[in-house]
Amino acid sequence: MGETGARTVQAAARVAASAGAESPHPVPFRGGGFRITGNRWAGFVVFALLIGGIEIGIRQGWIGRLTFPLPSEVLDVFRQLWVTGALWDHLLPSLSRFAVGGALGALAGIGIGTLIGLFGLVRAGLVPVVSALFPVPKIALLPLFVIWFGIGEGSKYALIALGTFTPMVVATYGAVDNVDRTLIRMGQSFGLSWWSIVRKIVLPGAMPGILSGLRIGLAIAIILLVAAEMLGATYGIGAYILEAGSLYDLERLFAGVVILSVLGVLTSSVIGWIERRVLRWRT
């Protein structure tokens, strides 16, 4: 390009820049990247409408009393549980079992899943074992755990831990496998050590999949918590639901189910809070 052409290009660039600066309609930003936004009150509104619809439907006779209890009567059961202190008598043992069993299963699953994703020999040896354990209904193993660990807390911890362990292993080594290999090669080209690549590239890249697996694993842990407490437990949400069901006390039964639902919502909220802190780099 000659000198005349270069001057022409420079003049056109200056004109375009000045036109953009003087334009009354700036170009909007379009690079949001499908960022999810929501309304924190939308869930409460949906729940309120659902509960209000059930209350009205029962009182008007549209819904049978043998199908659903009145939400107002379930609320009265909660008041009685709070006043008598029975709520904490059942809730605290359940929280303890859920926390201990879930933590043991999640930590073991993340550790072994990471090893499977990083080392071929470990993968060859353990993936068949995990594949054999994963489809087995964990509730079916409860009598075996009672034989091994007794009818006390040990069998309940073991059942919850195993139920959390298997989905965490699968989610973790799948997340490690899905880390972009281009980033790993880039780290190697810059001379990063193996441990630095794992710590700075592999684990952060796998963290979204690990946290998604944690949601599933802890949801399964809540299900198994109820099953474990229905056998040989005097206190706990599962024991409370079993007692209410045997008496066909729908108000108490639904109160126990609501407690489990709230536990699930709180667990999901905690994981969501961790995601916002740990995965801030994605925004």
Descriptive notes:
With 283 residues, the protein is mainly alpha-helical. It has a domain at 89-283: MetI-like (MetI-like fold, Orthogonal Bundle). It has helices at 3-22, 42-59, 71-84, 86-118, 120-133, 142-149, 153-177, 181-189, 194-229, 237-246, 250-278. Helix 4 packs across helix 5, helix 4 packs antiparallel against helix 9 and helix 7 packs antiparallel against helix 9. The longest helix has 36 residues, at 194-229. It is flat, with a radius of gyration of 28 Å. 25% of the residues are buried.
Strand percentage, roughly? under 5%
Q: What is the third-level CATH name, the topology of the domain at 89-283?
A: MetI-like fold
Report the order of strands and helices: HHHHHHHHHHH
Largest sheet: none
CATH top level of the domain at 89-283 is: Mainly Alpha
User: Cα distance, first to last residue?
Assistant: 43 Å
